[in-house]
Amino acid sequence: MQHKFISILLDLLFPWDVTCPFCQRSLVGTERIICCHCEAELLQSVLTPPEQLSAHAPLLCCVSAFAYDGIARLLVRELKYHNNSTVAWLLALYMLAALLKVFPSPAWDIIVPVPMHPAKEAARGYNQAQLLAAEISACLSLPLRTDLLRRTKDIASQTSRTAQQRKLAMKDVFIAEPMQPGLRILLVDDVLTTGATASACADALLASGAASVTLLTACQA
Q: What pTM does this model have?
């Protein structure tokens, strides 16, 4: 009787009929979120340390876990557009691994997610960058600060704009609250494309007293 009860409880907590969102294969054993076959494909998009680093002034450094293609791209889209917040945990693990390859010892004081415009966040129901940042914060035992950086303008999609046009469009989009001088900030977002958004965030944070801003993203386009 006790064995049957434990079996039922385990089935409730870890249902065996959960399927991989990409190949629809049933998850078994220790598989969580995606199956081992899709995770093996995901590993093909992992960036090596030289590929991870990208320079975008005034950011001190940019680190990304994956190239923005294949399963990595699908995971970000699941998180960003399909309200599948559970993938934040998996992406955050790989982001942390990429970060620790470059910085073996934590070199930050706080973690700040790239904010969404309040109206856009209300419509979506969450900020995917904040979900990732919360997971990173828990792993590194660093404070998550969602109150320091605000987005004041809702910019239309920048997909068709050049890097220079994106940079101009992001001017004065973010405002940072006054902070303790000298803070080293780990800025978290889902995708690094031209760096215009992250650079604008860094401009605002540095102007308000931050000593440095390092960017960590799930993917680099």
A: 0.86
